[in-house]
Design brief:
elongated; glycosidase; iron; single chain; metal-binding; 2 domains
Protein backbone atom coordinates (compact mmCIF):
# COMPACT_ATOMS: atom_id res chain seq x y z
CA UNK A 1 0.00 0.00 0.00
CA UNK A 2 1.34 3.42 -0.97
CA UNK A 3 1.97 5.84 1.90
CA UNK A 4 -0.65 8.32 0.66
CA UNK A 5 -3.25 5.56 0.46
CA UNK A 6 -2.37 4.37 3.96
CA UNK A 7 -2.67 7.89 5.40
CA UNK A 8 -6.02 8.43 3.68
CA UNK A 9 -7.40 5.14 4.97
CA UNK A 10 -6.16 5.85 8.51
CA UNK A 11 -7.86 9.24 8.37
CA UNK A 12 -11.13 7.71 7.20
CA UNK A 13 -11.15 5.20 10.05
CA UNK A 14 -10.32 7.84 12.65
CA UNK A 15 -13.04 10.15 11.33
CA UNK A 16 -15.53 7.30 11.44
CA UNK A 17 -14.61 6.30 15.01
CA UNK A 18 -14.16 9.82 16.39
CA UNK A 19 -15.98 12.36 14.20
CA UNK A 20 -15.89 15.06 16.89
CA UNK A 21 -13.28 14.07 19.48
CA UNK A 22 -13.64 15.97 22.76
CA UNK A 23 -10.70 17.54 24.58
CA UNK A 24 -9.98 15.03 27.37
CA UNK A 25 -8.92 17.63 29.93
CA UNK A 26 -11.66 19.60 31.69
CA UNK A 27 -11.28 23.37 31.36
CA UNK A 28 -13.30 26.54 30.85
CA UNK A 29 -10.94 28.87 28.98
CA UNK A 30 -7.43 29.08 27.50
CA UNK A 31 -5.80 29.62 30.90
CA UNK A 32 -7.43 26.66 32.62
CA UNK A 33 -6.60 24.53 29.57
CA UNK A 34 -2.98 25.64 29.83
CA UNK A 35 -2.91 24.67 33.51
CA UNK A 36 -4.56 21.30 32.88
CA UNK A 37 -2.18 20.39 30.06
CA UNK A 38 0.84 21.43 32.14
CA UNK A 39 -0.39 19.17 34.94
CA UNK A 40 -0.89 16.22 32.59
CA UNK A 41 2.82 15.51 32.05
CA UNK A 42 3.54 12.01 33.43
CA UNK A 43 0.00 11.96 34.85
CA UNK A 44 -3.20 10.53 33.42
CA UNK A 45 -5.92 12.86 32.16
CA UNK A 46 -8.29 11.15 34.59
CA UNK A 47 -6.12 12.12 37.56
CA UNK A 48 -5.75 15.69 36.28
CA UNK A 49 -9.53 15.98 35.95
CA UNK A 50 -9.86 14.77 39.53
CA UNK A 51 -7.44 17.41 40.81
CA UNK A 52 -8.30 20.52 38.79
CA UNK A 53 -11.81 21.21 40.16
CA UNK A 54 -10.38 21.99 43.60
CA UNK A 55 -7.51 23.97 42.08
CA UNK A 56 -9.75 26.01 39.80
CA UNK A 57 -12.16 26.70 42.65
CA UNK A 58 -9.25 28.48 44.32
CA UNK A 59 -7.46 29.85 41.26
CA UNK A 60 -8.88 29.95 37.75
CA UNK A 61 -6.99 33.06 36.61
CA UNK A 62 -3.29 34.01 36.61
CA UNK A 63 -3.99 36.64 39.30
CA UNK A 64 -5.58 34.10 41.60
CA UNK A 65 -2.81 31.56 40.96
CA UNK A 66 -0.15 34.08 41.96
CA UNK A 67 -2.11 34.96 45.09
CA UNK A 68 -2.52 31.28 45.96
CA UNK A 69 1.23 30.77 46.06
CA UNK A 70 3.41 27.70 45.41
CA UNK A 71 2.80 25.99 48.75
CA UNK A 72 -0.99 26.11 48.51
CA UNK A 73 -0.85 25.08 44.87
CA UNK A 74 1.28 22.07 45.84
CA UNK A 75 -1.15 21.15 48.59
CA UNK A 76 -3.98 21.15 46.06
CA UNK A 77 -2.24 19.21 43.27
CA UNK A 78 -0.16 16.83 45.40
CA UNK A 79 -1.69 13.70 43.80
CA UNK A 80 -0.32 14.42 40.32
CA UNK A 81 3.13 13.33 39.22
CA UNK A 82 6.00 15.78 39.73
CA UNK A 83 3.72 17.92 41.91
CA UNK A 84 6.43 20.06 43.58
CA UNK A 85 7.94 21.11 40.26
CA UNK A 86 4.54 21.67 38.68
CA UNK A 87 3.34 23.79 41.62
CA UNK A 88 6.36 26.04 41.33
CA UNK A 89 5.99 26.28 37.55
CA UNK A 90 2.26 27.10 37.74
CA UNK A 91 3.03 29.98 40.07
CA UNK A 92 5.95 31.20 37.96
CA UNK A 93 3.95 30.93 34.72
CA UNK A 94 1.07 32.89 36.25
CA UNK A 95 3.55 35.57 37.32
CA UNK A 96 4.99 35.70 33.80
CA UNK A 97 1.50 35.99 32.32
CA UNK A 98 0.68 38.92 34.58
CA UNK A 99 3.89 40.63 33.51
CA UNK A 100 2.88 40.04 29.87
CA UNK A 101 -0.63 41.49 30.29
CA UNK A 102 -2.50 38.78 32.17
CA UNK A 103 -3.96 36.81 29.27
CA UNK A 104 -3.19 33.57 27.49
CA UNK A 105 -2.92 34.59 23.84
CA UNK A 106 -2.40 32.61 20.60
CA UNK A 107 1.28 33.51 20.63
CA UNK A 108 3.83 30.72 20.26
CA UNK A 109 6.67 32.78 21.66
CA UNK A 110 4.69 33.81 24.73
CA UNK A 111 3.41 30.32 25.48
CA UNK A 112 6.75 28.57 25.06
CA UNK A 113 8.44 31.16 27.29
CA UNK A 114 6.26 30.24 30.27
CA UNK A 115 7.66 28.11 33.09
CA UNK A 116 6.77 24.46 32.63
CA UNK A 117 5.28 25.02 29.18
CA UNK A 118 7.07 23.22 26.39
CA UNK A 119 6.23 22.94 22.72
CA UNK A 120 3.69 20.15 23.23
CA UNK A 121 1.71 22.09 25.86
CA UNK A 122 1.82 25.22 23.73
CA UNK A 123 0.64 23.19 20.73
CA UNK A 124 -2.37 21.83 22.61
CA UNK A 125 -3.39 25.32 23.72
CA UNK A 126 -2.93 26.78 20.25
CA UNK A 127 -4.92 23.97 18.64
CA UNK A 128 -7.72 23.49 21.15
CA UNK A 129 -8.15 26.96 22.63
CA UNK A 130 -7.50 29.04 19.53
CA UNK A 131 -8.04 26.65 16.59
CA UNK A 132 -4.54 27.32 15.26
CA UNK A 133 -3.34 24.28 13.26
CA UNK A 134 -0.91 22.24 15.37
CA UNK A 135 -0.05 18.59 15.90
CA UNK A 136 0.86 17.98 19.56
CA UNK A 137 2.61 14.64 19.98
CA UNK A 138 2.06 12.61 23.14
CA UNK A 139 3.24 9.08 23.90
CA UNK A 140 0.25 7.48 22.13
CA UNK A 141 0.81 9.49 18.95
CA UNK A 142 4.56 8.90 19.01
CA UNK A 143 4.04 5.16 19.43
CA UNK A 144 1.34 4.78 16.78
CA UNK A 145 3.15 6.88 14.18
CA UNK A 146 6.11 4.52 14.63
CA UNK A 147 3.93 1.40 14.45
CA UNK A 148 2.22 2.60 11.29
CA UNK A 149 5.47 3.54 9.57
CA UNK A 150 4.58 7.23 9.45
CA UNK A 151 7.71 8.20 11.41
CA UNK A 152 10.87 6.48 12.60
CA UNK A 153 10.40 6.89 16.37
CA UNK A 154 13.66 8.81 16.77
CA UNK A 155 12.14 11.87 18.46
CA UNK A 156 8.82 13.61 19.07
CA UNK A 157 10.08 16.49 16.95
CA UNK A 158 10.58 14.16 14.00
CA UNK A 159 7.19 12.55 14.60
CA UNK A 160 5.50 15.94 14.62
CA UNK A 161 7.17 16.95 11.35
CA UNK A 162 6.30 13.66 9.69
CA UNK A 163 2.65 13.70 10.74
CA UNK A 164 2.25 17.31 9.64
CA UNK A 165 3.63 16.30 6.27
CA UNK A 166 1.37 13.24 6.07
CA UNK A 167 -2.01 14.70 7.02
CA UNK A 168 -3.74 17.76 5.52
CA UNK A 169 -3.32 20.83 7.72
CA UNK A 170 -7.09 21.23 8.14
CA UNK A 171 -7.21 17.84 9.91
CA UNK A 172 -4.36 18.34 12.39
CA UNK A 173 -6.36 19.65 15.33
CA UNK A 174 -8.80 16.75 15.35
CA UNK A 175 -6.35 14.15 14.09
CA UNK A 176 -4.06 14.37 17.10
CA UNK A 177 -7.02 13.86 19.46
CA UNK A 178 -8.33 10.98 17.36
CA UNK A 179 -5.00 9.18 17.48
CA UNK A 180 -4.83 9.63 21.26
CA UNK A 181 -8.27 8.07 21.71
CA UNK A 182 -7.44 5.31 19.24
CA UNK A 183 -4.25 4.48 21.09
CA UNK A 184 -6.11 4.23 24.37
CA UNK A 185 -9.05 2.21 23.10
CA UNK A 186 -7.74 0.08 20.24
CA UNK A 187 -3.95 0.13 20.09
CA UNK A 188 -2.33 -0.46 23.52
CA UNK A 189 1.39 -0.44 24.11
CA UNK A 190 1.46 -4.00 25.43
CA UNK A 191 -0.22 -7.28 24.51
CA UNK A 192 -1.56 -5.77 21.31
CA UNK A 193 -3.48 -7.96 18.85
CA UNK A 194 -2.07 -6.55 15.64
CA UNK A 195 -4.44 -8.34 13.26
CA UNK A 196 -7.56 -7.42 15.25
CA UNK A 197 -6.61 -3.75 15.34
CA UNK A 198 -8.68 -1.65 12.87
CA UNK A 199 -5.55 0.17 11.69
CA UNK A 200 -2.52 -1.97 12.55
CA UNK A 201 -4.08 -4.85 10.62
CA UNK A 202 -3.22 -3.05 7.38
CA UNK A 203 -0.90 -0.19 8.37
CA UNK A 204 1.63 -1.75 10.75
CA UNK A 205 5.09 -2.10 9.27
CA UNK A 206 6.35 -5.69 9.51
CA UNK A 207 9.72 -4.52 10.71
CA UNK A 208 8.03 -2.55 13.49
CA UNK A 209 6.02 -5.60 14.55
CA UNK A 210 9.23 -7.61 14.76
CA UNK A 211 11.02 -4.88 16.70
CA UNK A 212 8.19 -4.43 19.15
CA UNK A 213 8.02 -8.15 19.81
CA UNK A 214 11.54 -7.98 21.24
CA UNK A 215 11.84 -4.44 22.58
CA UNK A 216 9.83 -1.36 23.41
CA UNK A 217 9.67 1.78 21.31
CA UNK A 218 12.68 3.88 22.35
CA UNK A 219 12.03 6.92 24.47
CA UNK A 220 11.75 10.13 22.46
CA UNK A 221 15.23 11.45 21.78
CA UNK A 222 16.98 8.20 22.64
CA UNK A 223 19.29 6.58 20.13
CA UNK A 224 17.89 3.47 18.57
CA UNK A 225 19.92 0.29 18.59
CA UNK A 226 19.87 -2.10 15.67
CA UNK A 227 16.73 -4.26 15.64
CA UNK A 228 17.22 -7.81 16.82
CA UNK A 229 15.61 -9.06 13.60
CA UNK A 230 18.37 -7.72 11.36
Amino acid sequence: MRRAEKVERIGEILDDLYPDPPIPLDHTDPYTLLVAVALSAQTTDKKVNEVTPALFALASTPEQMVELGPEKILETIREVGLAPTKAKNLWLAATQLLEAGGEVLPDWELLESLAGVGHKTASVVMAQAFDVPAFPVDTHIHRLAWRWGLSDGSSVERTERDLKAAFPVETWNRRHLQIIYFGREHCPARRHDWMACPICSFAAVKKRVAEESTKRLPSPGARRSRPATR
